[in-house]
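ASSEMBLY PREDICTION REQUEST
Request ID: AP-0331
Submitted by: J.K., bench scientist
Number of chains: two
Total residues: 538
Priority: normal
Notes: Please return the full assembly, not individual chains.
Input sequences:
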Amino acid sequence: MIVLDSVDKVFNSGKANQVHAVNNVSLTVADGEFLVIVGSNGSGKSSLLNLVAGSVLPGRGTISINNTDVTRLNDYDRSKWIARVFQNPLSGTAPDLSIIDNFRLAALRTSAKGFSVGVTTAFKNSIREKIATLGMGLENKTGQLMGTLSGGQRQALTLLMSVTDICKVLLLDEPAAALDPRSADIVMKTADNIIRDFKLTSILITHNLKDAYNYGNRIIQMSEGCIIKDIKGENKTQLTQNEIFTWFS
Amino acid sequence: MDFYLTALLQGLCFSGIALGIYISMKIFNIPDITTDGSYTLGGVVTAIMLTQHQPVYFTLPAVIISGALAGAVTGIIHTKLKINALLAGILVMTALYSVNLTLMGRSNIPLIGTHTLFDILQISTDPNNNAFWILAFFVLILAVKIGYLLKTDFGLAMRATGNSETMIRALGVNTDKMKITGLALANSLTALSGYLTTQYQGFADINMGIGIVIVSLGSVIIAETIINWLGIISTWTSLALVLCGAIVFQMVLAITLSLGVDANLLKMVTALFVLLIVSLPRLLLKHSG
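STATUS: Completed
Returned structure:
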């Protein structure tokens, strides 16, 4: 469960380019909830996600994950709970490391990276099995550098990497925005499957209203740092795609 | 022939510094030039300890620690004060000049009548041959240790820190701490070169580090050119190439001198040689394209 209590974030405070990115937002994301955030550019979606992830620390308010106060924890300390997929496929993986090395690091997200060689034959085999479930034929290419793969393949692997270690919360920041329509579709479906299979609490930011309609069991709309619409459960299911479109007109 | 053996030995002495630059520049993607200072620091600490009749095996950890401290200071300035890495390195390098001079109390300490690394074993009666075996053994152990480190989980985290910072932070690594550790490691390797050179040449000098960064950069760039050219992924091969780079570099300088080039022009030749290697891939590409 993620609880944001009166969280506020101002960038460039006191300067001409001051931005009130997140304005006194209180939000509770229940366990297993799949929250979709929509909103125009500059509405504060990404800032809100970064506040949850710890890449940005709030000016005021508190943030807790599974009843632990994480308000002052950095992103690398919050990785105990949180896995992330970024908009840029380059950000979620290390291009000059092999696929298997990337997975090794992902498998250690919640623990220390020690002085022993962790990429063993057993580890390789277990990862190959996992990768095979994607059906992309990448299971025999685990020695290949991550940078040689396409954006879609990398995003799909990043999703899989997030559940290689214990994962409570999955943050998806426009994971399909940089991809072609077919890859985008595969990545979104993979994300949805993983979220269901592992019963993850997740937050998805998207500009694609079709995805906002298709995925998730709660949707909020942000504008100027505030939540202006919040629809969940049955009401989200009954929501039509056209209705979501009208929010932006 | 002796001439080339000397170059080979010098190249082996420089392997620490080449590995150090490989780690800071290639693994961490940080242009660190604390090198000039930490190399001299390694030499100075060696000379002081040995002339105080401290044993060689006791001097070694002292050198490693001193180099690590120098690197850590650069790392802290770079990460905590958000100073450009190049400037942070220049600052520490400049300050180290005074530190080194103060430690020595004068500009040069000869190792007369001291027991050095090269007196430990007598494999060959020829001192140069003997030095070769000892250096080769030392460098081999060093390379194996670094190679192993890069294969470990910690090593993977190091490599990812220089490659994709957002990713590795999301995977729970404090990148500031990692960079400080990396620069400490790189500079302790550099100090090890100072340790070897000082004992090999028999003295430590306050100016021994001037321009040394270009020597190691040259070694790494020679290696990198081959790595990119052949598309090498293996960490072990990469490290071996970096070590070869250090030796090739010294060989080229030896050949230059043997051709009768004025020794005063040696730094100029060094700079031109590095320029040539850096531009070679691009020049070849232009030619073929």
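REVIEWER COMMENTS: Chain A has a mean pLDDT of 94.
SIGN-OFF: pending second reviewer
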